[in-house]
Amino acid sequence: MRIGMVGTGYVGLVSGVCFAEFGHTVICVDKDESKIERLKNGEIPIFEPGLEDLLKRQIEAGRIRFTTDITEAVKGSEAVFIAVGTPSKRYCRDADLSYVHGAAREIAQNLEGYTVVVNKSTVPVGTGEEVECIMREEAPSADFDVASNPEFLREGAAIDDFMRPDRVVVGTCVERAQEVMREVYRPLYLNETPILFTKRETAEIIKYAANAFLATKITFINEIADLCEQVGADVQHVAKGIGLDGRIGGKFLNAGPGYGGSCFPKDTLALTRAGQKYGAPQRIVEAVVSVNEDRKARMADKIIEACGGDVRGKKIGILGVAFKPNTDDMRDAPALTIIPVLQQAGAQILAYDPEAMVAAKEMIDGVSWCDDAYAAAADVEIVAIITEWNEFRALDLDRLRDAMSGNVIVDLRNIYKTEDMQGKGFSYISIGRPHVNLKNGT
Fold first, then answer.
1. Residue 324 maps to which CATH number?
2. What CA–CA distance (Å, rounded) separates 220 from 161?
3. Please, where are the H alpha helices in 110-199?
4. Is the same domain home to 172 and 313?
């Protein structure tokens, strides 16, 4: 079948390429001419493992193409997906739906035959109704239905998540629209992937509820980690002990500097705003948002404390600035809070990230960006690990120690064993675990 994809950001590009892999003909549209030219040449504007190779294969097969002309993407398509950005508004932190509304108007002007218009963007509850009203006003005689189809893609593992999802959620009660969406996801039907058809409003809430729950798990284990540090317990053992309970599960129980990225910060905020709007306060999620913001600044304080409480004039090496490994995404990354706090306290920052430095340079001033981890450790008193890239898990610890002027490692991701770091001569500080201080052997 023929599918139109409006927007070639992270969600739109991954979805478009994967739908092409399913065997559909996909036309992706975006107003950014330079991005479209790059995509036509098989170049992707983001870092996502495996995506560029898959895109080139689909271009060669003739199943995907890119345009700046929305008419080309919409006319003749049986399903048109809206996959544009929904950032938080600066002044009130509500989701900004201007791009969604604009896309709805343009799609309505170009419909040809029966079409299912699908909200793939993450949107607050009620947006499907808004989109339908906008389109009916724009094109009263057009033959279409509006559905919700939230995405559940993890950056760094998006292709696998799309091709082998835990579930697919489709919000529409119209049988005609359901039949189109069954055809869209036909390969997953054959693989017996759970596909849930429900009301639009329910589908919209499912997306926010899922992300808020995962953000809550992260924030919960981070607070437990703080308690573990005070009493001498090990948060990794605690996480394993509770994660073995099938009702809880072990995923998202890794203590760290707080969640970031394009989804959790924005979606938790949007859910709290929806609760306020409809008179159903989401108090647990409100607490999660507050605790997570405070945690990022506290991680900077943790690094300062490791330097004896004063970092003025001291060099600090930072390993990893992306919000998570296998992505170049800097949105709401903990490093965006941690590094400026260290700088304001007088520290000189050397930093390295395998993929995110280009984006980070636009967002953080005054950092000496390095070619590798060892350059970021050169003559520094302390090294802080903020992102758990695999290459940081296998550092030559002797070389790292020799490069440093000090011997303190602050590991905000718990990627090393305390006994190993002690054996290599480091004073090692991690999250929710007993510290290793070579001066007193504790």
1. 3.40.50.720
2. 25
3. 127-138, 158-163, 175-184, 186-190
4. no
Calpha distance 127→119 (Å, rounded): 9
pTM (predicted TM-score): 0.92
Which residue segment(s) compose the domain that 317 sits in? 297-429
Candidates 45, 271, 295; CA nearest to 55 is: 45
Q: Is residue 149 domain-shared with residue 240, that is, in the same domain?
A: no
- Taking only the tens place, the pLDDT of each residue in 210-238 is 999 999 999 999 999 999 999 999 999 99
If DSSP codes are grouped into helix, strand and coil, which group holds residue 169?
Answer: strand
CB within 8 Å of 154: residues ≥ 6 apart = 161
Long-range contacts of 357-364 (CB under 8 A, 24+ apart): 357/321, 358/328, 359/328, 359/329, 359/330, 360/321, 360/322, 360/330, 360/335, 363/330, 363/336, 364/321, 364/335, 364/336, 364/339, 364/340
- What residues act catalytically? 263
Single out the residue of 120, 176, 91, 116 nearest to residue 6, CA to CA. 120
Q: Are 263 and 211 in contact (CB under 8 A)?
A: yes
Give the C-alpha separation, 431 to 257, whole Å.
8
| Alpha-carbon torsion angle 92, 93, 98, 101, nearest 10 | -110
- pLDDT (tens digit, 9 = 90+) per residue, 234-284? 999 999 999 999 999 999 999 999 999 988 999 999 999 999 999 999 999
Domain boundary residue, one of 163, 198, 233? 198
